[in-house]
């Protein structure tokens, strides 16, 4: 599975239990609460989809199949808004 991560060009903040995100390149605005906010936090570093699903199932009252469907739908909405990038290889530091 590919590693996923927030688009580093996205500007975001937490405000009154909401995560508010703006894609600078596309101009898309996105806001989410609850599970969506937790997923956004997980995407700070490269993470596999299955680890996101596992986190949602373990920390929220959701069945595995439902959790997978909802996570996949949420990730797709982030991808369509230009807020998610695939990281097939870990990032390396160049000096």
What this model shows, in words?
The chain is an alpha+beta fold. It has one domain (3-87): Outer Surface Protein A, domain 3 (Alpha-Beta Complex). It is 38% helix and 28% strand. The chain has three helices and six strands. The strands form two sheets. Strands 5-1-6 form a three-stranded antiparallel beta sheet. It has a three-stranded antiparallel beta sheet with strand order 2-3-4, covered by helices on one side. α2 packs across α3. The protein is globular, with a radius of gyration of 13 Å. It starts with a strand and ends in an 8-residue tail after the last strand.
Which CATH first-tier class would you pick?
Answer: Alpha Beta
How much β-strand is present in the residues?
25-35%
Structural class: alpha+beta
Which topology does CATH recognise?
A: Outer Surface Protein A, domain 3
- The amount of helix comes to 25-40%
Mean pLDDT: 88
Number of strand elements: 6
Give the name of the CATH architecture.
Answer: Alpha-Beta Complex
List the total number of helices. 3
Let me know the largest β-sheet. 3 strands, antiparallel
Which descriptor suits the 3D outline? globular
Detail the topology: elements first, then pairings:
Layout: E1 3-6, E2 10-15, E3 18-23, E4 29-33, H1 35-42, E5 47-48, H2 49-59, H3 64-80, E6 84-87
Helix pairs in contact: 2-3
Structure summarized in a few sentences:
This protein is of the alpha+beta class and 95 residues long. Helix content is 38%, strand content 28%.
Using brief descriptors, characterize the structure shown.
single chain; alpha+beta; Outer Surface Protein A, domain 3; 3-stranded antiparallel sheet; 3 helices; 38% helix
């Amino acid at each position: 599975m590919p590693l996923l991560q927030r688009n580093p060009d996205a500007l975001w903040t937490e405000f009154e239990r909401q995560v508010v995100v703006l894609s600078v390149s596309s101009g898309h605005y996105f806001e989410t609460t609850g599970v969506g906010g937790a997923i956004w936090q997980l995407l700070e570093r490269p993470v596999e989809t299955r680890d996101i699903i596992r986190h949602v199932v373990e920390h929220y009252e959701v069945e595995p199949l439902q959790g997978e469907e909802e996570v996949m739908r949420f990730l797709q909405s982030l991808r369509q808004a230009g807020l998610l990038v695939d990281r097939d290889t870990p990032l390396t530091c160049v000096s």
